[in-house]
């Protein structure tokens, strides 16, 4: 059998999910991209399994999700935020990180449901200086959001994960492994779950290797305190709620219940 072509997100928050997979060349061929690129590669068939933004599950073919593996927050996520020159209620224009798909969809929902604003969105490369030169606020995700010295820039940070949980009382599912129904065997699923367990157990090591000395402490705290990786019943409820609201506000054409690959017989 040919190795499954994996498209993984390059950000720090995804690294625990791919822990050790680079040496499993018998099972996987691994590449890294930004979330929007992972989704595009999966939709066009250039990879077999992608770590895709959760909103992209509704925009491609009928996919299956790897059970119990996802990038999740409950409360502040720290790495997905709106950075603005004014309070969010006064924002008229938003520069949206082109790396983002789910985060832009979530922000549109929050603007309608929580902030009571109807801003203009402009897709832009994630450069906060340029973004804020053109718009009142910048939506950033991943490492650019996590490591930005927004206080030094005099900006207001509105954490989208925090806003979602305050509004719904539920976790938010940012991304997960998804692919066509025939792409994975239960052995592949088990290997992905084992990678997650190993990466979570070694999260300090992962953060140190990724961040280097300058940001290691922040990276360690982020992986311990802000990000979760197990997709259980409450997380699935949060995902379903997001899909319902995204459909209500025209972010997607319709909501759809998540469908999963079969779980391995062994418990990890």
Keywords:
five-stranded mixed beta sheet; 8 helices; alpha/beta; 268 residues; D-Maltodextrin-Binding Protein, domain 2
| Average pLDDT for all residues | 95
Instruction: Identify the CATH architecture of the largest domain.
Output: 3-Layer(aba) Sandwich
What is the CA-CA span between the terminal residues?
25 Å
Regions with little confidence, pLDDT below 50 for 5+ residues: none
What is CATH's topology name of the largest domain?
A: D-Maltodextrin-Binding Protein, domain 2
* Rg calc: 18 Å
Q: How many DSSP-defined strands?
A: 10
Structure write-up:
- With 268 residues, the chain is of the alpha/beta class.
- The protein has helices at 35-44, 102-115, 128-134, 142-146, 160-168, 186-201, 203-225, 233-248, and strands at residues 4-9, 28-33, 49-53, 64-73, 80-84, 93-97, 120-124, 137-141, 156-159, 172-179.
- The protein has 2 domains: 4-70 and 174-219, D-Maltodextrin-Binding Protein, domain 2 (3-Layer(aba) Sandwich); 80-168, 3-Layer(aba) Sandwich (D-Maltodextrin-Binding Protein, domain 2), CATH 3.40.190.
- The mean pLDDT is 95.
- The strands form 2 sheets. It has a 5-stranded mixed β-sheet with strand order 2-1-3-10-4.
- β6, α2 (102-115) and β7 (120-124) form a beta-alpha-beta unit.
- The two termini are 25 Å apart.
- α2 crosses α5 (160-168).
- It is built from 8 helices and 10 strands.
Task: Summarize this entry quickly.
This protein is 37% helix and 22% strand. By secondary structure, it is α/β, with parallel strands linked by helices.
């Amino acid at each position: 059998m040919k190795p499954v072509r994996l498209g993984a997100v390059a950000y720090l928050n995804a690294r625990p999910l791919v822990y050790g997979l680079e040496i499993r060349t018998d099972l996987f061929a691994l590449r890294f991209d930004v979330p929007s690129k992972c989704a595009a590669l999966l939709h066009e068939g250039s990879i077999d399994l992608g770590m895709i933004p959760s909103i992209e599950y509704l925009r491609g073919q009928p996919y299956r999700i790897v059970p119990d593996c996802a990038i999740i927050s409950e409360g502040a996520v720290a790495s997905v935020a709106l950075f603005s020159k004014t309070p969010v209620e006064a924002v008229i224009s938003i520069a949206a990180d082109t790396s983002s798909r789910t985060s832009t969809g979530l922000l549109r929902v929050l603007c309608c449901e929580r902030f009571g604003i109807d801003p203009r969105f402009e897709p832009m490369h994630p450069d906060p200086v340029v973004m804020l030169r053109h718009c009142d606020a910048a939506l950033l995700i991943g490492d650019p959001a996590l490591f930005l010295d927004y206080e030094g820039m005099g900006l207001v940070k509105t954490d989208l994960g925090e806003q979602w949980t305050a509004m719904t009382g539920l976790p938010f599912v940012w991304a997960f492994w998804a692919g066509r129904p025939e792409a994975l065997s239960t052995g592949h699923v088990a290997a992905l779950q084992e990678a997650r367990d190993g990466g979570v157990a070694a999260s300090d090591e992962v953060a140190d290797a990724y961040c280097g000395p300058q940001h290691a402490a922040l990276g360690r705290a982020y992986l311990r305190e802000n990000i979760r990786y197990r997709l259980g019943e409450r997380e699935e409820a949060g995902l379903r709620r997001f899909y319902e609201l995204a459909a209500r506000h025209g972010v997607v054409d319709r909501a759809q219940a998540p469908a999963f690959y079969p779980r391995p017989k062994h418990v990890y």
